[in-house]
Design a protein that fits this description.
Layout lengths: L7 E7 L3 H15 L4 E7 L5 H8 L4 E5 L4 H10 L6 E5 L3 E3 L5 H9 L3 E10 L14 E4 L4 E3 L2 E2 L2 E2 L10 E3 L6 E5 H6 L12 H11 L3 E12 L10 H18 L2 H24 L3 H21 L16 E2 L3 H7 L5 H4 L6
Parallel strand pairs: 1-2, 1-4, 2-3, 6-13, 7-14
Antiparallel strand pairs: 4-12, 5-13, 6-12, 7-8, 9-10, 11-13
Helix pairs in contact: 1-2, 7-8, 7-9, 8-9
């Protein structure tokens, strides 16, 4: 590795992902040769992941944890042990393409104000489509609903090159997130209370407030299976998404906004919960109610333990000021560019 090159570490957090590592790790290792170190952080797997790594990839660095602390704590603990200028947080269920690392590192090197980037995320099982977990870069609406260029709620666009320009975004997907190591630690990493889901959006929001920028780099392309740990529709996934979203909004919105928007958001969540119940999804209904109760408990008892923004002067990019629910469900606008006009993108 050229000593003048920045030090890059690809860190894969594994939990019972032996099948995915067997399928996707060889290409990751091959693509990283001479460019990046590959590190596996094992979150107390109970399958044969460790035996597989010992046999097939004995030269890779392996960090083992005795307890599964989730995505947030797992990465915080792992990255505290990894010396690099840039971390690449990569899900085990991601297929990389040749040359996927260099374009993102070049973009990060071009501007020290860019704290994190993501490649273009496409669907592994239908490679013409964008993928749910980040598509061509994450945005957020004025009421705290995350969406992405190429993905609005459950609607996935076909990739026709419409988002092929590098662009500022609100959040970079945790499925394939390049992050400047110094800024990651400056922000105190992920909020471990989140356990999993939306912790990367919270981290990116805190980076924005500290004056940094987040970018999408579509010159780099990866393919994400998705739902590898918690499949879509899982009630724990529903619970964590609703709970963590409310906590994130409470943490990062100023009081001038959250005093009225948080109750409104909770009311919209309630509508979604009742709609689910009437459709026969009792588990979904219970998960949303549990999430709201957990959020109220967090506000009363737990907030001091969470990672709050270190600075609040920055102005986030990638924010649609309107209401995504209204646009999608009432006005039937299902495509990103029907909601967010192309100018400046």
């Amino acid at each position: 590795m050229n000593p003048l090159q920045p030090k890059v570490a690809i860190v894969i957090l594994n939990f019972n992902g032996r099948k995915f590592m067997e399928q996707f790790l060889p290409a990751v290792v091959s693509s990283a040769e001479g460019i990046a170190e590959v590190v596996i952080a094992d979150n107390a797997s109970t399958d044969d992941s460790i035996a597989f790594l010992d046999q097939q990839f004995p030269s890779l660095r392996l960090i083992r944890f005795k307890k599964n602390g989730g995505f947030a704590k797992g990465y915080n603990d792992a990255l505290a042990l990894v010396d690099a200028d840039y971390y690449v947080l990569l899900n085990s269920d991601v297929e990389v393409s040749p040359g996927w690392i260099q374009p993102v590192i070049r973009l990060l090197e071009s501007d020290p104000g860019i704290a994190a980037c993501q490649p273009k995320l496409k669907a592994y099982h239908d490679k013409k489509l964008f993928e749910y977990a980040g598509a061509a870069g994450g945005w957020i609406d004025g009421y705290g609903y995350p969406f992405a260029r190429g993905r609005i709620f459950d609607t996935l666009e076909e990739d026709q090159g419409q988002y092929d320009q590098a662009a500022p975004i609100f959040w970079a997907s945790g499925a394939a997130m390049f992050v400047r190591a110094s800024v990651y630690h400056e922000m105190k990493g992920f909020d471990e209370f989140f356990f999993a889901h939306q912790e990367e959006i919270d981290l990116c929001w805190r980076m924005h407030l500290a004056g940094y920028r987040i970018y999408s780099c579509p010159e780099s392309v990866v393919y994400h299976v998705g739902g590898g740990t918690l499949p879509h529709g899982n009630t724990l996934k529903t619970y964590l998404n609703f709970r963590n979203n409310l906590i994130m909004l409470y943490k990062n919105w100023p009081w001038t906004i959250k005093w009225w928007k948080l109750p409104f958001r909770m009311a919209l969540d309630g509508v979604s919960a009742w709609k689910g119940l009437l459709a026969g999804q009792g588990g979904y209904f219970k998960a949303v109610i549990r999430a709201h109760l957990a959020f109220v408990k967090w506000v009363i008892l737990q907030q001091g333990a969470s990672v709050f923004p270190q600075h609040k002067g920055g102005v986030p990019e990638g924010v649609y000021p309107g209401n995504l629910v209204w646009q999608y469900f009432v006005r039937k606008r299902r495509i990103f560019r029907e909601i967010v006009k192309p100018r400046g993108l």
